[in-house]
Amino acid sequence: MNQASIQKAFERFLRTRSLKLTPQRRRIFERAFSTHEHFSAEKLYGWMKGESGPPVSRATVYRTLSLLVEGGFLESLDAGQGELLYEHVLGHRHHDHLMCIDCGRIEEFSDERIEALQREAAARKGFTLLYHNLRLFGRCAPCERKHSGGAAGGAGDAPTPARDGSARRSEPARASLPSD
Question: Residue 115: which domain range?
């Protein structure tokens, strides 16, 4: 699917919300679809500020990204770094992500064996699988070399034994919302 047909689909989506493709939304759309990297709203806003064209506010960037996600043009990805990352997905094969907890590097991968296992697991539990998002967190090779190459780490850096006898690292603490 080419960018012009995706843009026309976005315009149709906006009309269903009684919205128009303003020059600012067009700029954001074009910039989001011109990159093949994962980007944050702040990074996109920085690109907008550094490039010529109609001025775009930070709020317009966030609202337009939300519309692009809602319409299925972009996917958001929580990389565990405190902000969502985005990538365009129309016209791209499904993929999963390997995410480095130290440098933030993201590697995309596809493995039909994993896909088959997920379909089988869903079927065993009586689920109709509609979509999924698999993120694997760890360290990329350069960060693992730095981490294990003699750097003095604290007690929290040591692997902890898992119930199955393998080693695992503790997941970083995450904030939780109070329940009602």
Answer: 94-147
